[in-house]
Structures are given as C-alpha cells and as structure tokens.
Amino acid sequence: MAANSAGGSRLPVPVKRGGAWVVLGTTANRLWDRGCFGRPIRDGVQLTTAEVLCAHRLRGLPIPHAQWLSEALVECPDLLLECEILGALRFPGEKVVLAENLSAANAVLLDPRSWALRWSRNVKPKEAMPLAEIRWVKASDSIDWDELAEWTANIEAGGRIPELLIIDDEHSVVTYRSTFHQPNGALANPFRELDNEQRRIIAHAWSESRETSEGIWLGIEPERWPINGIGIRLEGGIWLSEIEGRIVSRIVNPTMPIPSDEVGRRVELLSDLLSRGLAIRSGFKYGTRWRAYAGAVGGEHAPWLIVPVEEAPTNWGEVCLSARLAANVNKSWLCAYSNSNNDWRYLAIERPPSDSRWMNPVKH
Predict the structure, then answer these.
(1) Which of 43, 216, 268, 355 has the maximal Cβ count within 10 Å?
(2) 130 vs 48, 110, 223, 357, CA distance in Å?
(3) Residue 267 to residue 5: CA distance in whole angstroms
C-alpha cells in the first residue's frame, strides 16, 4: 500500500459502507482537514468513489483491493474522468467540496446542477464564502445554451464564479468561465438619436440604392453617412450587407414588419447591438458572425466577437476552439440570445486569469 507523505504514516484502507467508502480512524481526519476530501463522520471520513481514486493519487490512500478499479468502473463509468477533474482542482491546493459533502462546509449550492464548490487554498471552507460553483463536462457533450445561461445567471446572482472544467478524449482538463457581458459603445443609437436632417439623408440615399451581389450600394458621400455603426466605404459610396440593408429600411420605415425567420432574428440582434452604440463588422476572419467595436472602426480593436445562438457551437470542443481563438486576439466571444422578455443577453465563455486555470498535473 502507498504511504502518505505527511509524517510517513499510512492511511487505513477504505471500506465500503452503504453506497460510499469510509476511511476509519483518527488519521483519516487529515483527508478532510488538509484537502477537503469527502466529509467527516463519527468514526472517520466518508468518500465518494472518485475521491478514493483521487486521494490514492494525491494523498497516498491505499485502494481497497487489487480488483477495485475494475469493479468501480462498472458502477461509475465516468470515474477516471471525474478523478482527473478533482486532481486538476486539488493538485494546486484549491479547497473543493463536492455537492454531496457540503454539510461538512456549512455551505449550499446556488443551483442544483452544480457539481462542487471551490474555496481559495488559503482558507477553511467553514470560515469563508466559496469563490466558485463548478460544473464539469466532456468536450464531446452537447450544449444547451438556454440551460447554461440560466445556470450562469443563478451563480452570478449569488456572487460566485460560474466555473467550467472541460475534459477531452486525452483526459486533458481545461478551465473556462461563463459570464454575462454588457457590450456598449459610444456611437449614437440610430433608432433614437438621429435628427431630422440625418433621417432625410438616409431616406434619400436609400431611395436611390442599388442592389448588388450579397448587399446594397448607396451612392452617398461616405463623409455624409450618418450611421457609423454599419456600412463600409466602397467606390465613393456606402455598401451594406443584406442584414444591414434591412436595418436601414427599418430606420426609413419604422412600421415595416420584421420577418420571424432566421434572417429576422439577425435583424433584431443587429438592431440591439447598434442601439448599444456599437460599430459592427463581419466576424468572418474570426469564425463568427460579427465583431463589435465600442467606437468608430479604425480606432481601438474590436473587444467582442458575437454569434447568434442559432449559429453557436453545438458541443464543448467547438466552444473551446471559438473561445481560445477569441482570447488569442484579445477579444471576448459572446453567444447572443433573447430571453422570455425578448431582451438580448450576451453570454461569454472565456479563459480565467492565469492563476485560476486548473488543469491535470499529469499529461497522458
């Protein structure tokens, strides 16, 4: 059996009790006191199956018997994955308490879908509030964006970090956070802040517009174009994409109905972004629908990459790719969706600070 490094003393072999594993005796208390493994009971510490394996790896806890892992995998097919997640969090010293053990920390979940709570390595759970509420997923798992947004909102409302640990086919763990952004800029809202002269200029340019492949060209001097958030300068005029053209037609004729199809949804989303004072350009180079600027294009870089939920990645592997690409170019990747009140919300999946990126210590 493996020896525990602290003082050279050995931990007892775990024994099965009901549906859990218990480590008996006073020496077992160090599993909770030093690493928040399991939860203390009258005669020792009770562990989940994944915690037995994690404690074996990190604390030298003996496994129950030679065939234990083979038998445990029958009951817990995700055992190896869950152990990697626990190892990623606990190896650097973070205090992690699983949902079923929270009575030992006098803490509760803000959302029942969470898997665990995390505290800083420098505190005792009973003496401080948790920093994060954790879920873990497989890279191949599909994403329910509405469900994820609801979970994120519940966690952030309680002042905790919504933390996501993602594990791939190589059993490699990466950390992300889900959080809501409020992208806002300094440009005029074209639906409310244009004066009569600006509206007249737009209406006149629109009346003489020419359809082109994939868009519309307006023969107006670029310097006179009042809507800074959309349109590119082209051949002495302004070129609009099809969606941007629909926006302009709404400004010219506010009573024009918006279709209920996918194009109509894009029109509604782009309208919301423009109403926030943002300048919008294609996100094609970044593998997304739009990139958004807080001011005029050509000044600072675009802080946000935005995709409608209908075009969002469908599994966690794809999300990681999008979020990492955005981070590499110093941008935030946002999934846009409208809630039950038809208000648009922007859910970011982003890499945490460098001191909070939990990953498994051993690469396989």
Answers:
(1) 216
(2) 21, 11, 54, 17
(3) 62
Cβ(335)–Cβ(349) under 8 Å?
yes
Query: Taking a C-beta distance cutoff of 8 angstroms, is the pair 294, 184 a contact?
Result: yes
Tens digit of pLDDT for each residue in 326-345?
A: 999 999 999 999 977 779 99
Q: Which tens digit of pLDDT belongs to each residue from 248-257?
A: 998 998 877 7
The whole-model pTM stands at 0.89
* Residue 316 Cα distances to 181, 273, 324, 353, angstroms: 20, 26, 12, 20
Residue 303's contacts (CB-CB under 8 Å, 6 or more residues apart) are 183, 292, 293, 294, 331, 332
Tokens of 166: 């993602």
